[in-house]
What does this fold into?
Amino acid sequence: MGQILGDQQETNVAPEPTEAPPEVTVNRARSRGGSGAGGGGGGGGGGGNGSGPEQNGQPPAARPARVVEAEEDEDEELTLKYGAKHVIMLFVPVTLCMVVVVATIKSVSFYTQNDGQRLHSSTESPQLHPERYATIMITVIIVMTLVLVLLYKYRCYKVIQGWLFLSSLLLLFFFSYIYLKEVFKTYNLAMDYFTLAIIIWNFGVVGMMCIHWKGPLRLQQAYLIMISALMALVFIKYLPEWTAWLILAVISVYDLLAVLCPKGPLRILVETAQERNEPIFPALIYSSTMVWLVNMADTDRPKRNSTEAASPQQEAPEAVASPAPSSLSQDDGGFSPSWVNQQQHQLGPLQSTEQTRREIQEMPSARPPVEDDDEERGVKLGLGDFIFYSMLVGKASATASGDWNTTLACFVAILIGLCLTLLLLAIFKKALPALPISIFFGLVFYFATDNLPLRPA
Amino acid sequence: MTAAVFFGCTFIAFGPAVALFLFTIAREPLRVIFLIAGAFFWLVSLLLSSLVWFISVQISNKNSAAQQKGLLIFGVVLSVLLQETFRFAYYKLLKKANEGLLTLSQEETMPISIRQLAYVSGLGFGFMSGAFSVVNILADSVGPGTVGIHGDSQHYFLSSAFMTMAIILLHMFWGVVFFDACEKQRWWAVAAVVISHLVVSCTFQNPEYVASLVPTYIILFVMGVWAFYSAGGSLRNLKLCLTCKDKDFLLANHRPR
It folds into this structure.
């Protein structure tokens, strides 16, 4: 079953270069943690997003009757083995996203420049009152989350989809255009506007298709990583230093409350999605596998074949008889008709007939059924997690005095936090916030590594 | 100070370790996780030791050079002791986790043996330690400049890279020997590991970097042989492995002779 780690995603509209107050559009969705390896009824509730598609094809395979404890023990063992695989399936994209952000920060100076495009009025410096700007931004995020949850609860799906569509449109076209422009500036490459337009157009359209509709899994994952990295870069550029750290800290606390408290908006969102047995919007979640298409292709054939099994019965005797006339040809390779007839008499029909073929096909296929195989179940992580992790590491690499040491320390801290969160997910089997532990470790390691002069021995 | 120096030093420092990672660890998710956890433990130990050193520097007399040097040596010793303590703590944690797993699961074998854990955790320690030693130096080597323009050693980058490689491999060997000694309750072996770590670290004090490489490599070689024997290797095993006649290994890896 798809194990889903709760988290949020935010898409921020960057402020216009003028003095207009920033328009911030934030989307959030949280997804539930599915139950662990225990398929069927066990523990944390059936249905839900990830398991829906996997079960629509084949009915759940009949398990031999077992003592409940034994099944749970084996679940624990399976959970550990496949849990490790899931952890790695999340490590890789998170690492990639962070690498992209750090590489950009180190090479393209645009994202670390303070060139007057700020979120504050020109008279006040945000260094004096970081808490004020943090409060504003947090309030905006909270309001947006509540709006999203309300819209979802009252089934205004069109509004939400339009909102998501617009924000990913903005990210894929506008922000990537700026990114590309700055990269060209850094490396002093020249490109005409026509080529640039073609490139951006293709990039954006394919991205929209992959994220909102269908596309190869790897491509979709790559696009999700890219837009998370772009978003993190925007945050790093436009948030002054202390504001960013404050926001990270407060967001983790908010995340914790919103997911775990009974009345938390994100928990309500997840439970509503569970009740209605719907997946939460794919544009907001990174998932490591895509199972439903494969399943449908697999299960169609046996059904189709079984209905036609009755008809070729009468064809069979004719098919068996047919080799006999064909062997009247000159070149029968030594297999004279009498020999063939004798073989068939002794061993049964040698040629494969329609019916025998169908019988073989109806037998259970060699491929293991999907819902029993844990390896096919993916893990899902919200894009907001990607964004905030990358933002932390990017900020660390941009502003740290210890430079690469600090970046490395934050990187390891975040990965360990993610690992611990997944461990907790395997233990508790319900929706969990992915931000608090990682961000906490990341912040601790950032401030410690930056301020304490470290000398390895 | 060119890309050649950068790439050369990077590959010298991290080459063996990355090769070990790619060929033995990258395919097993459980090992990767324990590697990163090992790196994390090393990081925490370093953090604590630097915290203590920082506090002691703050409360000391900042003007006395001798005191500062003494504090430095004290800091190094403390750091080594804390690293080894955290290695021991990691060992205890892994033992507990393994026992828990064994009682829970139906199978008799654990998904990962304590020897593999020793290797993986040692390598994790080594990666992090090496990275912290050398990454900033590597980053500087890309930019413009001249090495040793004020009369210092001209081979600073190269000797740093070699030292880092030695440190990473040493941490791995120390990990194997340490865990094995803890399993068999041989405390003298643990003490030997700690002492050799101290010796290697204190050679850092030598400003003439190249000279400190020699004892480090001797210790590296000795520890390597010790780790090989404590992991169950022997001359016979080695011969079988090198001539590709080791039946158990071949069976396990389905490779034709």
In short: The CA atoms of residues 10 and 126 of chain B lie 15 Å apart.
